[in-house]
Amino acid sequence: MKVVGIAGSLRPRSNTLHFVKTALEVLEKQGIQTELISLMGKEIKPCTGCYDCVKQARCTIAGDDFEEIICRMRAADGLILGSPVYLSSVVPQMMALLGRATFVAYWNNKFFTGKVGGPITVARRAGHNLAFSQLLLWFFINGLIIPGSTYWNVGTAGTGGARDAEKDTEGLQTVTNFALNMAALMKKLFP
């Protein structure tokens, strides 16, 4: 079993990256292989709505990092999507990835269906729930199975750098509980 965690922050020492890494570390301790993908330094062009993916069974937009990431997402049994919250929303580079991934998966036997996963959002003060909901909608429309936790998987951190994330003990515990539930569910689904 393998889980891919994608951190949407473009900061080198991001709080979002810290929360996603925390979840992946818990999964590793539960015997599940993990891989971290940071969107920092990656280019993901937005979907153009060309529908070439219907005819070609892949996205034909070239010259960016999408193909490498979608291949890793497709091969995984589980996905964790982490995004910082900007203006109460998921960051644009994450939404560009998810928009294109949805189209490609839909026209290729809906290959995300049956995978396990969930979102993590990180904000300074507010907007978590709107961004969290955006990501939940992505999981639902793509047929993924979402385990719960003891609260929503949201972190509170205000400045760049993982030092703020380390102070949010409740958020880190929530993400830990989510990862434990994810591991338990995956072990039942993929024995």
What can you see in these coordinates?
- The structure is a single chain.
- The protein is globular.
- It contains 7 helices and 6 strands.
- With 191 residues, it is α/β, with parallel strands linked by helices.
- The longest helix is centred in the C-terminal third of the chain and has 21 residues, at 169-189.
- The chain has a single domain, classed as Rossmann fold (3-Layer(aba) Sandwich).
- It is 45% helix and 18% strand.
- It has helices at residues 15-29, 52-56, 66-75, 92-106, 128-141, 163-167, 169-189; strands at residues 2-7, 33-38, 78-86, 89-90, 116-123, 154-156.
Search tags:
single chain, 191 residues, alpha/beta, Rossmann fold, 6-stranded mixed beta sheet, 45% helix, 18% strand, globular
List the helices and strands and how they pair.
Elements (H helix, E strand, L loop, with lengths): L1 E6 L7 H15 L3 E6 L13 H5 L9 H10 L2 E9 L2 E2 L1 H15 L9 E8 L4 H14 L12 E3 L6 H5 L1 H21 L2
Parallel strand pairs: 1-2, 1-3, 3-5, 5-6
Antiparallel strand pairs: 3-4
Helix pairs in contact: 1-7
